[in-house]
Amino acid sequence: MPTTIDGVLFDMNGLFRHWRNAGARTSERHAGLPDGTIARYAYDHPSYRLARVGVITDQQWAADVADRLAADHGEHIRTALEAWRNDRGEPVPEMVALLKHVRAQLPVGVLSNCTDALADDLEYHGIVFDHTMASATLGVDKPSPHAFLLAAERMGIPCDKLAYFDDEPTFVAAARSVGMQAHLFTTPADLSQHLKDIGIQTDEAPCP
Q1: How many CB atoms lie within 10 A of CB 184?
Q2: pLDDT at 202
Q3: What is the largest CA-CA distance in the chain?
Q4: Residue 157 in 3-state DSSP?
Q5: Distance, CA of 91 to CA of 73 (rounded, Å)
Q6: pLDDT truncated to tens, each residue of the chain (208 aa)?
Q7: Does residue 107 have a cis bond before it (omega within 30 degrees)?
Q8: Where are the domains of the chain?
């Protein structure tokens, strides 16, 4: 069956990488902080949005988190944050293998709401896309339609010729609003079947 698309665009986290927050929990334990403290200072603070759209760098954001934690809980917190910062999540082997098969047939991009650390994280995990687009480098994050339009522009593929996969329903709806053939990701096996349905050959469907 001939493919109906010219490229594939994926979300990153929840598909190719899982976050278990093990590093944050280790840092909190070493620092004597209650569970969830780092998440509150790091991801629930406005500075994370600034890093996510490229106003500040990942390093500047992390330094701000450390400064605020140290101001509120003591200077000893700084040395305990190493485990949090070194935690880059865990790759999903089934998805990484599937990605290689898709890239052999069509250009593949990744569009992720994250800081400018995305490229380094991908290199760390050995995950290779043809186009890497962090919201920090685009200057806009999902679900803004502009994020999807910019991603398509950088891939050089019209929106209606791009398939998009994400585990966040809001982002799927946003991708559809600009004309992408967007699908909600649930499992690697379900993704494999979606790809076959649009004419992309895969190996045996990975286990869910």
Answers
A1: 15
A2: 84
A3: 62
A4: coil
A5: 33
A6: 467 899 999 999 999 999 999 999 999 999 999 999 999 999 999 999 999 999 999 999 999 999 999 999 999 999 999 999 999 999 999 999 999 999 999 999 999 999 999 999 999 999 999 999 999 999 999 999 999 999 999 999 999 999 999 999 999 999 999 999 999 999 999 999 999 999 998 875 444 4
A7: no
A8: 7-18+89-197, 22-86
Distances (CA, A) of 123 to 102, 117, 132, 155, 204: 19, 10, 11, 20, 27
Neighbours of 76 (CB within 10 A): 11
Residue closest to 4 by CA, chosen among 85, 106, 104: 106
pTM for this entry: 0.92
Paired tokens of 75:
């200077």
Residue ranges in the chain assigned as alpha helix (H): 22-31, 37-42, 46-52, 58-73, 77-80, 82-86, 93-103, 118-125, 135-138, 145-155, 169-177, 188-197
Tokens 């509120």 label which residue? 72
End-to-end CA distance of the chain: 25
Kindly report the CATH class assigned to 7-18+89-197: alpha beta
**Amino acid sitting at position 89:** G
